[in-house]
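agent: user wants the full assembly modeled, not chains individually. Plan: 1) parse entity lines 2) check alphabet per entity 3) run joint structure prediction 4) return tokens. Steps 1-2 passed, two entities, 672 residues total. Proceeding.
--- entities ---
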Amino acid sequence: MSRYKKPVAIYLVLLLLVIATGVTFAQKDRADIRIVVVSHGQASDPFWSVVKNGVDRAAQDMKVTVEYQAPQTFDMVAMSQLIDAAVASNPDGLVVSIPDADALGDSIKAAVAAGIPVISMNSGSDVAEELGVMVHVGQTEYEAGLGGGERMAAAGVKNALCVNQEVGNVALDLRCQGFTDAMTAAGATVEVLAVDLADPTDAQQRIAGALTANPDIDGILTLGPTGSAPAMAALEEGGMLGAIKLATFDLSPEVLAAIRDGNMLFAIDQQQYIQGYLPIVLLTLFNTNLNTIANDVLMTGPGFVTQATAAAVIELSAAGTR
Amino acid sequence: MAATASATKARDERLTESSLLKRLLSRPELGAAGGAILVWIFFAIIAPEGFLSLRGTASYLEVSSHLGILAVAVSLLMIGGEFDLSIGSMLGFAGVVMAILSTVLGVPLYLSSLIALALALGVGFVNGYMVNKTKLPSFIITLAGLFIIRGLTIAFMRLMTGRTQLGSLDSAPGYAVLRAIFGADITLAGVGFPISILWWLAFAGLATWLLLRTSVGNWIFGAGGAAAAARNVGVPVDRVKIGLFMLTAFAAWLVATIQIAVVKSADTKRGEGQEFISIIAVVIGGTLLTGGYGSAVGAILGALIFGMVRQGIVFAGVDADWFQVFMGAMLIIAVLVNNFIRRRAEEARR
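--- prediction returned ---
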């Protein structure tokens, strides 16, 4: 019985220490402004880790207090409850991502109704305005695809594939749509190829098959690293690496290396670091100086990583800011 | 029994009255009750502004109510000596079934909710039947269930809609009925308290009554504590277990329906991880992993603690990175404290 006392005491002390460090982190900053970020991405996810680094750096630079909250999994119910809690704590600003406007709409409207300035980032550019959000900071998918199409047409591609690993996901369909519109405007053709996100081997075979079926294809756009890896493998196997121009959405170490080595034309970067950084700056400015942005959407993308910048971006990526 | 015969009080030792304090000390939920009070005081001190406000209270009670409904059913099942790792998947499954039926096929939402209930109860029955038939640990059977049900949910959703998320259910037929029953807010002093809190309390009350006041309750304790002995005295152990698996499936369906009514959308990932969190809530509530001992009230308190910590750290301004640390630490502390109290109680009784 008494042998339980010690471990219990140790655990209690440890728990209090954990709580105390957490609390002092929040209270060490003497600034009065307190901003809460509720996103759908965990800080352990490589993409969202960069967002959080942006948030943290902005908090440091602005000298304001910022708290980052996210549900443990992609759980929209838990996320709406986190927003409710954030609203109840009455912060000076709220930053949210909106991957599901149905699930989160009521909570966000409640925040706006409570007089809390709200900025959305990453997802939700199409619904931000009607929910009463001040401004959306992120990439609009159609424009990003459009930008990619313009670049690829400029590189001389006449017949392109748009490899979609998740047909039916509206955001991805919009990317292909924008790409197609830009290419068509430049007099080129685009064919959309659906592949399976969960099966890279099958995706590789389908891409290889499409290339054989249509030998005129001289360019491929993939909608993310899960599509670009099989595309690269298919090109390598067919000995067409570099001959057929490849480009992709979003960065990964493999993508960056391929661009540096000239095996890939460019990557479309939505620059999620500033999706975390800018809302904090904007909310600080609003709180101290009542400044607002006139646009509905502050576009962080499409940014482009090309062979000229790839080496530098690889270094920044290692530092967790790209 | 010579001592009894010669003693002045000639009563059977089983009938001796123990003091109120001793009876309290021997309750499984005592540790959780103390823990809930401590957690409440803790956040009341460090984050009084948000945590003590009515809005803040409504917010942690809502989180607790969703988890609590699951935890109450899981506590009964665990007292009955079994696990159900498939409830998180079942939650996602039930929601997706409702959304597909109503948005793709135009079935009124209350009707598709009943169809989802029938399907969920069917899966619960299969879980129980498989456990009885194969004699495999329910941990294995329902672990398989976790993956199969989640996989079916994703596969059907993609097959029917090509997507993983369905929204705008508030414009589906019959939504208003569902909203009124499962998703309404009860306004107290200008703050809306979700009706799910009432569902939670009603469900918990029913479970407690079942456990402590009916013969079915005794069967559950018997099935979990000593199944062979229970069988020998005529307890229908197999039927009790099937019933319990159907109860956890029912709870998963109830939470899925509440979530559909509140957030108006369904996605294939909903409910992920809830199977473990509800077990944590039940264990914090003093129920033994080995079965035969525990309480539904403890599960309520476990869920309440979880809800207070989950929302409390937002009020306190602690980074979400720390939440899982809290949860794990609390689990260990709760089990150690519960063990300590139980030993104390057993010694005191002698």
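agent: reporting back. The first strand of chain B starts at residue 165 and ends at 166. Chain B touches chain A through 62 residues (CB under 8 Å).
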